[in-house]
Design goal:
Blueprint: H1 2-32, H2 36-43, H3 48-54, H4 59-65, H5 68-79, H6 103-119, E1 125-127, E2 136-139, E3 145-149, E4 154-159, E5 164-165, E6 170-171, E7 192-200, E8 203-210, E9 215-220, E10 233-236, E11 247-253, E12 256-261, E13 266-270, E14 275-279, E15 289-295, E16 300-305, E17 310-314, E18 329-333, H7 335-338, E19 345-350, E20 358-363, E21 368-375, E22 380-387, E23 394-400, E24 410-415, E25 419-424, E26 435-438, E27 446-451, E28 455-460, E29 465-469, E30 475-479, E31 503-508, E32 514-519, E33 522-527, H8 540-550, H9 556-598, H10 602-642, E34 667-669, E35 672-674, H11 684-690, H12 770-796
Antiparallel strand pairs: 1-33, 2-3, 3-4, 4-5, 4-6, 7-8, 8-9, 9-10, 11-12, 12-13, 13-14, 15-16, 16-17, 17-18, 19-20, 20-21, 21-22, 23-24, 24-25, 25-26, 27-28, 28-29, 29-30, 31-32, 32-33, 34-35
Helix pairs in contact: 5-6
Length: 797
């Protein structure tokens, strides 16, 4: 029995071990039996860290991870959201730039650098290179920085990573260049109109353009060497080679310098000998050249006139420093070809990859960019327009042409509404941008843009710098303006800003880890350092300890100064906010106090005002109608008083009492006498004055029976009136009874006695004295003259 139990227990143990080994082998076979396509789809969603960890699991997965196709799919899925079946070509392929030889190295490089840009805790460094606004910056190979100032005509040298400014300026005077102490009161040249900076290794090269037409050159060896100081070499052109106007633009093209002037000429210079090697011919009507660009290696020079005309010279051959042949062809493109609105050209660029001259032109306050494909043989210019009205006018342009095979050329444009649009340079079928994003929610104008394939950096008119993912356009981080708020306010109420806070230029380092931004008179520098081991939220204590071990901790004095500056800025912001709040709420409290004094709220006050306005409107209408009726009644009463001398003849009067040549014969109409103008030649003096004036009351329908009929001997026939008296304005107030006016005097005139005729007076009439009659005659004459003038004005209208 004991032996049988032992054999049974051994059988059970062997059975369990067999089941376990079969289960492990079964699970391993299931994991490795997944089709390669499905496994590649799964691993394409992993990051580089996870892929490297997966390679340590087993030999099969290690073989899968080491496959180049696996890293390629993971890179496309992670940054372009492209699956296995999708195509990379098209708009998504536009933003791809290769930095490494394999897709594994590419994915790891992208991931680590973008992680640094997003999570690095390095602080920014800001410094003031000189005592004026920065006109332009140029990055030296050793991370030195050249900053120019057109106001003082100087170029400063600084180390932006530490904020140190080297002593002495490179000025355009040529006296002790670079050996001064940086005093702006002594080291400056005020007549500099343009400056261009370049470098050749550690040598700084500067080209100066002056207002008197001179062109000068400065060359400083070991410009960023702070230990040894040597004077820079300065040379100026001869009198015969200078321009006849202000030099508006200078540029470096390799070892040559090109200048554009207001005299309408373009010159190519040899900077080593300060000698002009080629000059363009002058036009009949001098038109200034504002900008010039060139690719002398392909023999192309392009200049833009102030009128908007683009001039192209093609066919330069030979070495600039030895012998340069004249161009073989010249072509002028009028501004109406690419911009019918005639906006001034803000920038022009040349595509150096094109076999024929291909230009990119942008215009001030324009919604579009223009691509100009020029055929020099036929002179035909093909224009392609890029733009989107939804993002606003283009304010900054940065083209990036392909440098390698397989890359695509693109154009990055900042707009007035705070947006960034990316256009495919070779996508001619659609003018709309392939990518666009809203960089600034407050619609600040984008004044500068820079892109290096990894990140997209934008600068606004408010001095704010933002960094975005170069492919997905996701936001990475934001840098505030280095200019203190107290300096960015107007110097006095209503005056200009003390310092222009806009971002002028952005430079990105060749290693894709550094950024330099020119903001006003400041230069902001930042480096994407390594991320702490604990990530972005690592404890400050551990990171500070590691910095102290490396000796990389910043000084306490600098931290104290930064803290004081932040406190001062915070106080200034609080004061400004308090003033604004006091002004805003002060008006509101004053209005509310007035409403409280009336016992009304805002809604009741509005209703009360509307009620008063309605009552005033009704009262105005009632007053106008009553005054109009009153004036008509006065007018009719005056007309009746004028005809008041007509009466029924008495029994004792003879036929001679109604002579045929009376001034006014009443005609009965509707029981009321209507005066008519006299046509008798007996009274020539009066008839000449009043023949053109006929006064009558409003015409009414004829009554069925007359209450009064004229005598049968009256020679005047009833004729309708030829003209009615114009209506009197409602603004005229009725005459007072105590005042005497022409309207209260009847339109009557005393007859003039003649030896042959006599006129009977009414029995109840009182004879008028000569003085009173003459006074009434003068008033009647004035009234008739006024009526005649009013009628003539009405006819003219």
């Amino acid at each position: 029995m004991q032996s049988r139990k032992t054999q049974l227990s051994q059988k059970v143990v062997s059975t369990n071990s067999n089941n376990a080994s079969s289960t492990v082998s079964q699970h391993g076979s299931l994991l490795l039996r997944i089709p390669p396509e499905n496994l590649a789809h799964i691993t394409s969603n992993l990051e580089p860290r996870s892929l490297l960890s997966l390679a340590k699991v087993c030999v099969s997965l290690n073989r899968h991870v080491n496959d180049e196709h696996t890293w390629h799919l993971a890179f496309l899925q992670h940054y372009f959201a492209i699956g296995i079946e999708a195509d990379l070509y098209g708009a998504k392929y536009l933003l791809l730039r290769r930095f490494a030889g394999t897709w594994r190295q590419e994915f790891i490089l992208y991931y680590s650098l973008l992680r640094r840009w997003e999570r690095s805790r390095n602080a920014t460094t800001a410094h003031i290179p000189h005592h004026s606004a920065v006109s332009g910056i140029h990055l030296m190979p050793s991370h030195g920085l050249l900053a120019s100032s057109l106001r003082y005509g100087i170029v400063s040298r600084s180390l932006p990573s530490t904020g140190r400014v080297l002593r002495g300026f490179l000025d355009a005077s040529g006296t002790g260049t670079g050996l001064g102490i940086g005093n702006p009161n002594t080291e400056f040249t005020p007549n500099v109109s343009s400056v261009a900076m370049g470098s050749d290794g550690g040598t700084a090269k500067i080209a100066w353009g002056f207002r008197n037409g001179d062109v000068a050159f400065t060359s400083a060896n070991k410009a960023m060497d702070a230990g040894s100081r040597s004077a820079a070499k300065f040379s100026r052109c001869s009198v015969g080679d200078e321009h006849n106007g202000v030099v508006l633009d200078v540029i470096w093209d390799g070892g040559a310098v090109l200048s554009a002037s207001a005299d309408g000429r373009i010159k190519i210079w040899d900077p080593k000998r300060a000698r002009c090697v080629w000059t363009s011919s002058a036009s009949v009507e001098p038109d200034a050249f504002d900008k010039v660009v060139s690719i002398l290696s392909k023999g192309i020079v392009v200049a833009v006139r102030r009128s908007g005309t683009i001039v192209i010279w093609h066919g330069f051959e030979g070495d600039v420093l030895e012998s340069l042949s004249s161009p073989t062809s010249t072509l002028s493109i009028p501004s109406s070809v690419e911009d019918p609105v005639q906006h001034p050209i803000s920038s022009v660029h040349i595509d150096y990859n094109s076999a024929t001259p291909t230009l990119l032109a942008s215009f001030t306050d324009s919604l579009f960019l223009y691509r100009l494909d020029v055929d020099l043989a036929t002179g035909v210019v093909e224009t392609t327009k890029f733009g989107d009205a939804a993002v606003g006018c283009v304010t900054s342009v940065a083209p990036y042409f392909a440098n390698k095979d397989g890359e695509s050329s693109l154009v990055v444009a900042g707009t007035q509404l705070g947006c960034v649009a990316i256009f495919g340079w070779d996508v001619l079928s659609s003018p709309l941008p392939t990518h666009k994003l809203e960089a600034y929610e407050d619609a600040s104008t984008v004044t500068a843009v820079a892109w290096n394939g990894l990140v997209l950096v934008t600068g606004s008119a408010a001095g704010v710098t933002k960094v975005f993912h170069g492919i997905t356009m996701g936001h990475l981080r934001t840098f505030a303006s280095p200019i203190p708020r107290s300096r960015a306010v107007p110097a006095f109420a209503g005056g200009p800003l003390a310092v222009d806070p806009a971002v002028r230029q952005i430079l990105l380092g060749a290693e894709r880890e550094t950024m330099f931004v020119a903001v006003g008179d400041h230069v902001l520098a930042w480096r994407a350092g390594p991320v702490p081991k604990g990530g972005f939220r690592a404890s400050a204590k551990n990171s500070a300890g590691k910095k102290k071990e490396r000796g990389d901790i910043s000084s306490k004095a600098l931290q104290y100064l930064e803290m004081r500056q932040q406190i001062a800025e915070s106080k200034h912001l609080l004061k400004e906010e308090g003033r604004f709040t006091q002004r805003a709420y002060g008006r509101e409290r004053e209005q509310q106090a007035r409403l409280n004094s009336l016992g009304l709220d805002e809604v009741e006050a509005v209703e009360y005002v509307l009620m008063l306005s309605r009552e005033e409107a009704i009262e105005r209408d009632r007053t106008a109608s009553s005054s109009r009726a009153f004036e008509e009644a006065i007018f009719e009463a005056d007309c009746e008083m004028e005809t008041g001398t007509t009466f029924a003849p008495s029994s004792g009067s003879s036929a001679s009492s109604s002579p045929p040549h009376t001034n006014s014969s009443p005609i009965a109409r509707n029981g009321r006498p209507i005066p008519r103008a006299s046509t008798s030649p007996g009274n020539d003096t009066y008839s000449n004055t009043s023949t053109k004036i006929q006064v009558s009351p409003p015409f009414r329908a004829e009554a069925t029976e007359a209450s009064f009929s004229p005598p049968a001997t009256s020679p005047v026939s009833p004729t309708p009136p030829s003209r009615s008296f114009p209506p009197i304005s409602s603004s005229v107030s009725p005459p007072r009874a105590t005042q005497k006016s022409a309207w209260s005097t009847p339109l009557t005139r005393s007859p003039v006695a003649s030896p042959n005729t006599s006129r009977a007076s009414p029995p109840s009439s009182v004879p008028k004295t000569p003085t009173k009659a003459r006074k009434e005659d003068d008033e009647d004459d004035d009234l008739q003259l006024a009526i005649a003038l009013s009628l003539s004005q009405m006819q003219m209208k």
